[in-house]
Design goal:
The protein is elongated and about 90 Å long. The protein has eleven helices and two strands. The chain has a two-stranded antiparallel sheet with strand order 1-2. The chain is an all-alpha fold. About 10% of the residues have low confidence.
């Protein structure tokens, strides 16, 4: 969501920079392709895990909601694979974006992508197209919901003895241990998932490169002149005085002799 919002902000500015927008969209496309591929793999693994779990000996005696969660997880993982395949096909049909933005073909290719990301209503500034944001995120959402349903079904399966009550037995001890371990591991997972992206600017490279292109030359770059430039200036110059090239060569010889 944040990359598309950044693209919309640049497009809505008074001085939009096509080169920056091109880089941002190209990076978004590459990351989306990688995301779709990983989602396809994850959904396939989830579907295999759910199908394999149906063969456990304790499944027939499990609480009914556990099976409902697992069937829902299997259904969502299959839909996630299908949606990921559709989006992968669309991105391949649109093709890669060129590196330069000066040509008409580059702008035409860029506009094809922007049409799927931004809404350009009459007299309104470009803004993210929310239905397309939802569509692009659907495979990832289905994968996340499938994983959540699988873990909830697993939790209900393990905690079936606690739900049904009765005398204390080994299965209840296993359920208590599972809940404690799952709570600790889940808390660590949530903290890691939040902080790993909290300080990351996904579009830093594109904006940084654009800033370097527009910023003036630094004082060090402006003051740097090759040695032969001074010599050429001294040869062309009619001013009287010592030749700087001869003095420089003499200093080099003296330093080499002293060594």
């Amino acid at each position: 969501m944040d990359p598309i919002r950044r693209i919309a902000e640049i497009e809505a500015s008074d001085n939009p920079k096509p080169h920056t927008v091109l880089k941002l969209v190209s990076r978004w496309r590459n990351r989306k392709l990688m995301e779709i591929q990983w989602v396809s793999v994850a959904c396939t693994v989830l579907a295999a895990a759910v199908i394999g779990s149906f063969s456990w000996f304790s499944v027939p005696d499990a609480y009914w909601l556990a099976l409902a969660m697992w069937y829902s997880s299997l259904f969502l993982s299959i839909l996630g694979i299908a949606l990921a395949a559709q989006q992968l096909a669309v991105l391949n049909i649109l093709g890669e974006l060129p590196e330069e933005s000066e040509s008409e073909a580059a702008m035409g290719s860029l506009n094809r992508y922007l049409h799927l990301m931004l809404s350009r209503q009459y007299r309104l500034k470009p803004r993210p197209k929310w239905k397309m944001v939802f569509i692009w995120q659907c495979p990832t959402m289905f994968m996340s919901y499938s994983l959540s349903f699988f873990l909830l079904g697993l939790t209900l399966l393990v905690c079936t003895p606690l739900i049904r009550g009765g005398a204390w037995n080994t299965n209840k001890a296993v359920a208590i241990f599972y809940l404690v371990n799952g709570a600790a591991a889940g808390l660590v997972f949530l903290l890691c998932s939040f902080w790993i992206y909290h300080f990351v600017d996904l579009e830093y490279d594109a904006l940084e490169s654009e800033g370097k292109e527009n910023e003036p030359r630094t004082q060090q770059d402006q003051s740097f002149t090759p040695a032969h430039t001074d010599c050429q200036h001294a040869v062309r110059s009619d001013e009287k005085g010592p030749d700087p090239c001869i003095e420089r060569r003499q200093r080099v010889r003296n330093s080499a002799t002293s060594m």
